[in-house]
Design goal:
715 residues
């Protein structure tokens, strides 16, 4: 018995040990998922298969992971009628990720506010699913993300809101907020990615959220969000609504075709972007076929700030074919790209803003910077074929009110039309230290007044350099190529080419001055050929503070043609309403075939006496092809005869000749040559003077005398 007892005792001990080992082994496996799992409601539940997404979420949250986990939703096993909330999972990391491959299966929510919730979970990817929300209440959301959910990805999904038709700004396809039923602030997460998804109402006309994607905040920041290559449509108000985000990459998205008519429509809206130095980007998006009743902007930036080393980027976007009609009475000011209030260190470059039509807007702009926007770069944008029908003002670029240290470089602004005023670049009210350079402003028209570049009131210490302003027109009154007027500080207007601008009342090449500081008008080529009723002026320097202001008007070419129908003295090279003042004229080229006026005289000799101008010419500049817009001079009479030190480069970036630059916007080469150089003696030793002879071949058809030769001696 004793043996038997001992035998059974040993057996029982081994049995208990084995059972305990099995228990702990099973416990370890359950606590730490790793490898492959499935979701299949048509198959029995097991250690590796879950019949619902809620079962999967509960198990992951309960037991955690010890390695990377891949969950396959079995093809053909759906649809799944549920709402699922993924909470924090123990053990997840950049290597221990959870990936749910949806295989095109559908999850539909008809009861909860959200379909899928990410509540503090990290490193979860949901790929290739159809995620449907068919609820109709407030806070309807397909995907909710919050409570410090980090490193998650939603990719290649069809996200559909099929029943919501309300107007609550708490609704979105994807919402980052403090809870599923709030728009509360907080750190909703870091490093989350939304990419390659289709957001729509599933062909249910009139349905869709108010916001496409939304990051809600009021004080705390969400960090490093990537939203790329999505198709965003059927939203009611805003395609992307982002507040209190540091580091958002909103790139490559297609935003189009909103849910229905609305008073206010924005492709993307930002407020308080930038906090800790992570770069934010809004690049490579397409915004098209949106309709706004009163207010429209493809991008609306508000308190969006970068830094000198890390600029916020809005680049390479295509904004095309959007329309709007003002149905109210407010005089709203809106732009396709609109920066309102304290947007600093932005790079708005290489965007195409084309074929947008607004009706009845009082103000409309391609790029609008409105109130306190400093240190921004606006470059390389194409703003073409946009129209403000029945509206009063249209602007290519508008820098309005305290926009300081901004640069507008290399933009093309063309074919803008309105029923009032048209402006290429508008810099107004304390727009100080502006650089307006290398822009091509052409073929714009407005019935009242047309302005190429407009600076007004405290917009001094600015540079207007290397711009082409051509073929702009005013249908009823005057056109101005460059207008820099009233308290404009120190202003440099250099290397600009102005031609072909017209107005039935008249046209002005450069209109500058009045309570302004020192102004340099140099190396400009101004070609005026306009038949107007009243005045055609090449230069209109308006000196009021003659004792405190210096105008340097040097190295310009002014070719004035056309007629003034009502005034015999209406066409003038230059007119100064308050006299010469402290104006310095030197090395300018003047020409007209019709005897135009300098101030009050048609006599070039009299003008030289009045102005005390030195080293100037009244001669045809012999442009290569004025009719074809080639204003390269060909007259050797004034080649290399300009005043040095006013510009180092010409209109196209060629270096100015240091020993004698050419007047006008373009340096030019006259094909002279020298041959048959002969020393007329045999002694070329030191301190010996000897006559030389040479043949100078004039490479032009123009007779020239007293040619200056520059030479160097080698050896």
């Amino acid at each position: 018995m004793k043996k038997i007892y001992n035998k059974y005792w040993l057996f029982n001990r081994k049995t208990v040990a084995t059972m305990l080992a099995l228990f702990f082994t099973a416990g370890v496996a359950m606590a730490q998922y790793s490898g492959s799992l499935t979701v299949d409601q048509t198959s029995a539940a097991s250690a590796t298969n879950f019949q619902s997404f809620n079962d999967l979420a509960d198990s992951l949250e309960t037991y955690g992971v010890s390695g990377a986990v891949t969950v396959d939703v079995v093809a053909g096993s759906g649809p799944y009628d549920e709402s699922v909330l993924f909470g924090a999972v123990l053990g997840t990391s950049t290597s221990n990720t959870i990936t749910i491959n949806g295989n095109g299966e559908t999850i539909t929510n008809g009861s909860m506010t959200y379909t899928i919730g990410l509540n503090g979970v990290d490193y979860l990817t949901i790929d290739d699913m159809v995620i449907v929300n068919d609820t109709t209440g407030t806070y309807a959301r397909n995907i909710w993300i919050g409570n410090d959910a980090d490193g998650n990805t939603i990719s290649n999904c069809e996200v559909q809101m099929t029943a919501y038709t309300g107007t609550s700004s708490t609704t979105a396809y994807v919402a980052f907020s403090s809870s599923p039923t709030s728009t509360g602030s907080g750190n909703h997460g870091t490093g989350n990615t939304i990419t390659g998804n289709m957001f729509s109402n599933g062909a249910n006309t009139g349905a869709g959220p108010v916001f496409g994607l939304a990051i809600y905040g009021s004080s705390s920041f969400t960090y490093d969000v990537v939203i790329t290559n999505n198709d965003i449509t059927n939203f009611y108000n805003v395609g992307g609504y982002f507040t209190y985000v540091d580091g958002i990459q909103f790139n490559g998205n297609d935003i189009h075709t909103q849910r229905g008519d609305i008073n206010r429509i924005w492709g993307a809206y930002t407020r308080y972007i930038g906090n800790g130095g992570i770069q934010s980007q809004f690049n490579g998006n397409t915004v098209s076929n949106l309709v706004g009743d009163n207010e429209f902007a493809a991008f609306f930036f508000n308190y969006t700030a970068g830094s000198a080393s890390t600029r916020v980027e809005c680049k390479s976007n295509i904004i095309d074919g959007n329309t709007g009609e003002r149905s109210g009475t407010s005089y709203s000011r809106w732009g396709i790209i609109f920066a309102q209030f304290y947007n600093d260190y932005m790079d708005i470059s290489d965007n195409e803003i084309t074929n947008n039509t607004q009706t009845g807007y009082y103000y409309w702009a391609g790029i609008e910077m409105y109130y306190y926007n400093d240190n921004n770069l606006v470059s390389g944008n194409l703003i073409d074929a946009n129209e403000n029908e029945s509206g009063f003002f249209i602007y290519g670029i508008d820098n309005y009110f305290y926009g300081r240290n901004n640069e507008f470089i290399g933009n093309e602004i063309s074919n803008l039309t309105s029923t009032g005023y048209v402006y290429g670049i508008y810099n107004y009210y304390y727009g100080e230290n502006a650089v307006i350079s290398e822009n091509y402003i052409h073929d714009n028209s407005g019935p009242y007044y047309s302005y190429g570049i407009y600076l007004y009131y405290r917009s001094g210490n600015s540079v207007i350099d290397r711009n082409i302003i051509s073929n702009n027109s005013a249908d009823q009154y005057y056109s101005y190529a460059i207008y820099a007027f009233y308290y404009c500080g120190d202003t440099e207007i250099t290397n600009n080419l102005i031609s072909g601008n017209t107005g039935p009342y008249g046209t002005f090449g450069i209109y500058a001055g009045y309570y302004s500081d020192d102004i340099v008008i140099a190396h400009n080529t101004i070609y005026v050929d306009n038949d107007g009723r009243f005045y055609n002026y090449g230069l209109y320097p308006y000196s009021w503070q003659s004792d405190a202001t210096t105008y340097q008007i040097k190295n310009n070419i002014l070719h004035i043609e056309g007629t003034s129908q009502n005034y015999s003295n209406g066409n003038r090279f230059v007119y100064m309403p308050y006299g010469m003042g402290e104006m310095e004229f030197e090395a300018n080229v003047w020409y007209s075939s019709a005897g135009q006026l300098w101030q009050t005289t048609t006599s070039y000799t009299t003008w030289l006496g009045q102005s005390e101008e030195t080293n100037s010419w009244f001669t045809d500049p012999l442009f290569v092809d004025a009719a074809g817009d080639d204003f390269t001079p060909g007259n050797p009479e004034f080649a290399n005869q300009g005043v040095s030190g006013l510009a180092t480069e010409d209109l196209i970036g060629s270096s100015r000749t240091a020993c004698g630059p050419d007047p006008g916007a373009l340096e030019f080469v006259v094909d002279h040559d020298v041959a048959n150089l002969v020393f007329n003696g045999t002694n070329e030793c030191g301190n010996y003077m000897e006559a030389i002879t040479l043949d100078f071949n004039n490479g032009t058809s123009v007779d020239i005398l007293n040619v200056s030769l520059f030479y160097t001696i080698n050896g």
